[in-house]
Amino acid sequence: MNSSQLILLLASFIILSMAIFMVNKTTLKSRDDRIIAENELKAITEAKNLFELIKNKIFDEKIVSMISLRKDSLTASQDFGPENESFEEFDDIDDYHGYTKEVNLENNIKYKLKVIVSYVNENNPDILTSDKTFYKLVRIICSDKNQNQIFEIKQIFSVW
What we know:
Layout: H1 3-55, E1 100-104, E2 110-120, E3 128-129, E4 135-144, E5 149-158
């Protein structure tokens, strides 16, 4: 075997090694991406389940005893959140304000779900307001351990 054949053989081993390395790297990255996607899907499912719980609650606990609906009788936005209730006892939408839930997933990855409830302007629902209205915006924000926002689910609820 002469030196040119030896150089060609060595070059072909280097090219083959690089190709194997690139395939392994791509396979590992695909696996990591798949795990991330699976974890995000599980977090989305948890958020949707929480959202379904909220959707099944009444608009405001104070409307149960009202004969006629009056805005001034609704819960003030600064009073949103549970009234000395446990999660299982939440009875209206605004009880969930400030509620957080940690979701533990594969590979010790944790997501945090946070619920924010706000009144919105009746004429322009894109504007949040501290005034009592017949419309509440419920947002569930999901973030990872670095507090990067992953996604947000939101919906406006009405007393009607």
